[in-house]
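[Discussion] Sanity-checking designs against the backbone

I'm trying to build intuition for which residues belong where. Below is a structure token string of 298 positions. I'd appreciate it if someone posts a full sequence so I can compare it with mine line by line.
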């Protein structure tokens, strides 16, 4: 399947170019299409220009008149960039100038939910899965307002990329017009169903309220910050302080023991010295006595 897609990716621009000969220095806006792998808009013009002209097959590349991103693709630092669009307008992918938002049912570009007018109850419908309650599915603007048990529309977009070791990596994004995050569109019968809470068994990401189905169970999204419960903080603090106190007390005890041993040694030495002195005095006294006796005898 990947090889077919790859061949298609290589073949599409060639096929279209072959069908419509474009005069040199000119472009044809009929050649505008999305790259099958990356879904990026590809045209005869560069990233800084778009194909403009009354006759689509004999138009010219002119500088873009607006940008959709703060930092647009294809412009280097310091280069003059086209302006962003004001509120209530949007910049189409080709950058041909700001246009007014379009109502539900009108065409929109892939992944450009913000091209659609917000529904009247936008505050109630808005979620991370849509833009202000509007969603662009199958290139049509609609509201993400379908509730439990009603028919819904899904849209799969498959992106293809090359992995670190050169293998093809595909990523399919499934979107639907059910109210989110409480409902999702079941792909088998296209009916909105309730999303599943954390730790429920699941088969695909959209089934989970957290949008993350990991090894068959709904899990927190990978970027969720780890929250440490207060009791764990308290336990850890107590353990650290306790360990420090125990260490201090052990050191004090060891020091006391050492000092006691030293003082015992000193006392023993002192007693020994006193004993020695007494012996010398006794010896001296005995010697003196013998000498006196001899003198008396003489
Ligand atoms: C293309 O348009 C230019 C003027 O923009 C014109 O001079 C030229 O004849 C046109 N060529 C074709 C093939 O229509
Ligand atoms: C959503 O739409 C309403 C009505 O058009 C608008 O007042 C509000 O500012 C929008 N919110 C955002 C985040 O764009
Ligand atoms: C939901 O939105 C569509 C437009 O996308 C509208 O026609 C329909 O009446 C809305 N349904 C409800 C229940 O608001
Ligand atoms: C979209 O993809 C899901 C699984 O990823 C599949 O079940 C569903 O049938 C697909 N829908 C369409 C319209 O291709």
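Best answer:
Here's mine. Compare freely.
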């Amino acid at each position: 399947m990947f090889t077919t897609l790859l061949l298609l990716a290589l073949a599409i621009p060639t096929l279209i170019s072959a069908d419509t000969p474009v005069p040199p220095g000119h472009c044809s806006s009929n050649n505008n299409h999305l790259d099958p792998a990356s879904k990026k808009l590809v045209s005869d013009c560069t990233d800084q220009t778009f194909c403009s002209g009354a006759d689509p097959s004999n138009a010219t590349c002119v500088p873009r008149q607006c940008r959709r991103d703060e930092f647009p693709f294809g412009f280097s630092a310091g280069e003059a960039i086209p302006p962003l669009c004001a509120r209530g307008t949007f910049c189409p992918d080709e950058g041909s100038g700001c246009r007014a938002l379009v109502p539900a049912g009108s065409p929109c570009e892939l992944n450009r939910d913000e091209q659609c007018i917000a529904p009247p109850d936008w505050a109630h419908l808005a979620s991370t899965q849509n833009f202000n309650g509007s969603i662009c599915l199958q290139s049509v603007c609609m509201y993400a307002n379908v509730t439990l048990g009603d028919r819904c529309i899904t849209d799969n977009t498959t992106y293809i990329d090359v992995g670190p070791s050169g293998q093809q990596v595909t990523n399919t994004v499934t979107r639907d017009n059910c109210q989110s995050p409480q409902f999702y569109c079941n792909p088998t019968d296209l009916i909105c169903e309730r999303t599943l809470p954390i730790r429920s068994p699941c088969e695909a990401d959209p089934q989970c309220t957290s949008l993350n189905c990991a090894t068959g169970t709904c899990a927190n999204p990978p970027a969720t910050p780890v929250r440490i419960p207060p009791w764990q903080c308290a336990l850890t603090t107590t353990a650290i302080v306790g360990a420090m106190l125990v260490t201090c007390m052990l050191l004090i005890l060891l020091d006391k023991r050492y000092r006691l041993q030293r003082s015992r040694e000193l006392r023993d030495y002192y007693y020994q010295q006193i004993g020695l002195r007494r012996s010398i005095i006794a010896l001296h006294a005995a010697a003196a006595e013998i000498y006196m006796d001899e003198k008396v005898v003489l």
